[in-house]
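Section 3.1 - Work completed
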Amino acid sequence: MKRLVIWIDRLTDIFAYLSAFLLIITIVLIVSNIALMGLTGKSIMITDEYSAYMFAGFVMFGLAHTLKHNGHIRINVLTSRFSLNVQKIFRIYALVVALVFTVYIFYYSVYMVYQAYVYQIRSDTVAQTLLWIPQLVMPMGFFVLVLQLISEALKEFVR
C-alpha cells in the first residue's frame, strides 16, 4: 500500500511539472504575439485558441498536485469542533464523495473526447484543430485526480 501511495504521489508530481511547462509555453506564446504585434502589426493567429487549450491543461494537470498539498478550499468551521476521530471520519467521507464525483466526471470526459474523435469535430478557428486532442487533458487530469484522491484516502486510513 505504501508503494502505491508513493507511486501515485510521484505521478502527481510529474503532472505538476507538465502543468508548469504548459503555463510557461502559454506565457511565451502570448508574449511572442504581443512582441510581433508591436513590431510588425501582425498576429500569431492561433494565440488565443492555443493559449486557452494550454491553460486548460495547466489547470487540469495541477488539480491532483493541489489536492496533494491541501490547496483546495476547505471549510472546517463545523468539523474543527469535533474530536480528532470524528474529524478523520469526515475527511474520509469527503474524500469518498469527491472520488465518486471525480470518477463520474472522468467517465463523461472520456465520453466527450471519444465523441469528438469519432465525429472528427474541429474548432471554428483558423487552425481548425481536431478538438479531441486538446480535450484529452480533461480525462488525463481527472484520472490523476482520482488516483490522488485514492492516495489521500489511503493516507487517512494509515494515520
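Second construct:
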Amino acid sequence: MHPPSDRPWLLAVQEVPGYNYRPLYEQAGFQVIVEHSVRRALARLKTLAPQAIVADFSKRHFHDRLSNLESLLAARQRFPAARVLVLYDPVHAADLAQVLARCPADATLPLPARDAALVQLLGCWAAQP
C-alpha cells in the first residue's frame, strides 16, 4: 500500500494536459497521487480513501452523461469525508453547472487557477480532520 505519513492524501485527476499543480498540492499539506484518466482514478479509489480530490472538467459528450467527471463525482459518494475541487475551462462553465446540478462538488476554480487561491483552499482542507 502506501507508506505511513501524517499528511492526508489528495487524488489529482488530470485529464487536461498543460498544467502541473502537484507542487502546490504538496505545499498545501497533502501527499499526492496523480492519475491521468478517470478510469484509473476510479480504480485507485478502491485502495485509497483521499481527504481531497482535484479533478479537471473537460467537456466530452456521452450518450448518458456530459463528462467523465460525473462518474468520479458519483463514486465520491463512497467517501463522504472527501472534499472535491473541480478545475475547469471558463468556456465550459455552463456545461459544468449542468454536471454539478446532478453531482455536486465542494469548490470550483477556473483554469489557469491562481496559485494563492489553490493553496489557500487546499490548505484549509488539509488542516481539517
